[in-house]
Amino acid sequence: MNRKLLIVDDSNIIRNKIARAMGSYGLEIAGMAPNGEKALQLFKEARPQVVTMDLTMPEMDGIECIRKIHAVDPNVRILVVSALADKATAIQALKEGAQGFLCKPFTEDELTEAIGELLSEEAS
Amino acid sequence: MTEAELRIFVGIVKHYFEQQTGIAADIYTPFLADPTALPVSDYTGVIGISGVRQGCVYFTAPAELLRLILSRSGETDLSSPNLADLAGEIGNTISGNARRQFGNEFLISVPLVVKGRDQVISLPKGVKAYVIPFCWQRHDASLVVSVV
């Protein structure tokens, strides 16, 4: 059974870019959300195993959303995909429950590598 | 904004185009802007800066430049909303990447995108604005940094 992916980003073109890359990776796209509020709702409905999460978003930011998603399912694998390039933000995201951090701008290869690492850690 | 700080933004713009498109942008010499003659192109992504620094950063580009970037990324929807989305995303990415040097108290807003060359971008009063002009694939664009 394919694992399900939820894509969270306030940019439509970034959501589409991730969906294109992950579609060929064998992940089923369970949903796409433009902010944390919508992401939390979709997460509860679709229960994906993997989430890509932007941080700077309206209504509910990515850090708060990671915290809330992690509270629903502590086993979910979360890859942060953000332009915020400072170490403190990456560390905070990991503390809140993310397992990986990919800095924007990113290439498709970098994304598939980051998702691959996320899932291989899950398997080990 | 010091010259060294301005160079940080120059480096980020260079990296963005090389990494996202595989084609380098030609970066011209940055200059102090005349506040009454700020560059404004077809789409402008404005990012508010707060925290340890205040002001704004904006990216402004012609539609054709944005269309080319989207096409190269595999996006087939080259409609105006996606061009606006890309202008905001580039502004957001450049500002967010600057936190590598400025730290996590360099707070950035979500992008505000304005469309049209006749728009006026309001910058913080009394804060100098620097223009980083560049050319990518024969299309001129600018990053404007007005941060104190």
Structure report:
The complex is a heterodimer of chains A (124) and B (148). Chain A is an alpha/beta fold and 124 residues long. Chain A has a single domain, classed as Rossmann fold. Chain A has helices at residues 12-23, 36-46, 62-72, 87-96, 108-123, and strands spanning 4-8, 28-33, 50-53, 77-82, 100-103. In chain A, helix 2 (36-46) packs parallel to helix 3. Chain A starts with a strand and ends with a helix. The model of chain A has no long low-confidence stretch (mean pLDDT 93). With 148 residues, chain B is an alpha+beta fold. Chain B has a single domain (3-147), classed as CheC-like (Chemotaxis protein chec, 3-Layer(aba) Sandwich). Helix content of chain B is 34%, strand content 29%. Chain B has helices at 3-21, 63-72, 80-97, 99-102, and strands spanning 26-27, 31-32, 43-51, 55-61, 106-108, 112-115, 130-136, 139-147. In chain B, strands 1, 2, 3, 4, 5, 6, 7 and 8 form an eight-stranded antiparallel beta sheet that branches. In chain B, helix 1 packs across helix 3 (80-97). Chain B is globular. Classes of the chains: A alpha/beta (124), B alpha+beta (148). Chain A binds chain B through residues 10-14, 16-17, 20, 56-58, 82-86, 88-89, 103-107, and chain B through 15-16, 19-20, 70, 73-75, 77, 81-82, 85-86, 88-89, 92-100, 102-104, 106, 108-110.
